[in-house]
Specification:
The complex is a heterodimer of chains A (about 280) and B (about 300).
Chain A (H helix, E strand, L loop, with lengths): L1 H7 L3 H25 L10 H8 L1 H34 L5 H13 L2 H12 L3 E2 L6 E3 L6 H31 L1 H10 L4 H12 L1 H17 L2 H6 L4 H11 L2 H25 L10
Antiparallel strand pairs in A: 1-2
Helix pairs in contact in A: 2-13, 3-13, 4-7, 4-10, 4-12, 5-7, 7-10, 8-9, 10-13, 12-13
Chain B lengths: L1 H9 L14 H21 L11 H8 L1 H33 L7 H14 L3 H11 L4 H10 L13 H25 L3 H9 L4 H29 L3 H7 L6 H10 L6 H30 L4
Classes of the chains: A mainly alpha (about 280), B mainly alpha (about 300).
Amino acid sequence: MNDSKQTRKFPFWSWFWFIIGVLYFILPLYATLDFSLRMERGVLSFKAYERAFSDPEFLRTFGYSVILALVTIIVSILITVPTAYWIRLRLPEARRIVEFITLLPFVIPAIILVFGMIYVYSSPLKFPFTNITLMQPLTTFTFGTDILIVGGYMVLGLPYMYRSVDTGMRTVDVRTLTEAAQSLGANWFTIISSVILPNLRTALLSGALLTFAIVVGEVILASFLGVPTFGPYLFLLGQHRAYEPAALTFTTFLLTWAAMGIIQLVTGGQGQTAGAH
Amino acid sequence: MTAKILSPAMSKAPPSNWKNWIGVIPFFLFAILFLFLPSFRLFAGSFINSEGHFTLENLLELFTQPYILNSYWLSIRISAVTALGGGIFGFLLAYSVTVGGLPRALRPALITFSGVASNFAGVPLAFAFVATLGRTGFVTALLKNLFHLNLYDSGFSLYSFVGLSLTYMYFQFPLMVLIMAPALDGLRREWREAAENLGATTMQYWFHIAMPILLPSLLGAMILLFGNAFGAYATAYALTGGALPIITIQIGAQIRGDVLHNPGLGYAMAMGMVIIMAVSLAGYSLLQRKTERWLK
């Protein structure tokens, strides 16, 4: 009887908190959008967007970020899929240690990670016990910092990538699939590329989109390693411009929306969350 | 490089039990190069003084130098305030869309939005808050025009402790919603019905049944929120440009140039942060495991 009274009563406090929450979500976005449209005095226009998008520096840095994101996603998949697969099939005793490692990025924030990477990789790689230099410090040339930043991004995305891949493998029962493929005479390469990977589409897509969302706006690794990506560009633009950064901020938000929206769609509401604060 | 790392997984393995470990070599190589080596070097470096000898001086100095202590304290305060505020607010929001009696359709919308907002951080978030609560921000202007309330005359500033906390809240409470919504779903209808059949009031149900079950999950989530704010750097740097010396900003300054004039002390400062993060994550997983017993 209490319950029926509850349901008929108007849930005032629930609505109250919900509306405050919605306002908290919406106001900063609305304010940014509103500001970004006011570049021309007295009228609303997309001028700030036109200006921001036509800056060659924007195109260069944004393109760089997108390429880094794609490389990070591909290498992450190449490392996490065989590992998760192998653990499920042959090496269950490694599960605990590997899962522990995939959680470490939560303990080591990006600022500490980049601190450590600079410490390790800013000295040249020497042949042990001699003075013969095998390789210049990775931090001193572009390809070197590219390797470091992709490695760092893989670390930042690792918890999400590994968890989606592992969950994906649990739901499709890789063991049965593998045995079926083996009995039909498929080799390991065929099994992974034409049986396992296609069945992990959803998991891989959500892991990839989360990684994309982390990498495209990332600023800490990029600015300390000196890699010319979108994050540091947006930060610098904010130092001496007003309207263009607002336009790019709103665009970034739409990109995050798109990435998360697709994840929600393909996973049916099992959304994940990442952090690159 | 990738191809070289990956090749062992495909190659033939020697016929013994340990051969199975060869399959995970690429993963461990990656973890060693980009996770263990950097953290181990920082750890080792914090025990070395400027002359290159072993010392415990750096670790002791963490607790004696006011410059460093203040930074830790500021970071801890801001993380605690936003974890508590974001935690309570996020819980109330999660409550409202799960068992709070709001229309069902609002739930997926709120969850998706929380997913987006908890990922919307760093430089764009700082800029969005400048457009909202900055000196000429949208809400600042709105309050001035509607209520003749000048926020900045009344002592508020976006570039202060309160302002940064409000900004952090934007990624804190959505994270709480994402963690608490499934936990609240786990509260079974039968428990409530059983309590009501035995004559319990709504208050009694919440205080004697629902809260004790949810408490570990609630506390655990807040601890996770604490760590989430504690490790944040980009948002604070983009918003205040280093005017609020939280610990991550001090570490950033140390990386840019040895402002402490002692690299070892910088490494010790970083290790101190990792220890606090590790303790909070351990607390979270411990409490989470406690809840899982009930909410399956």
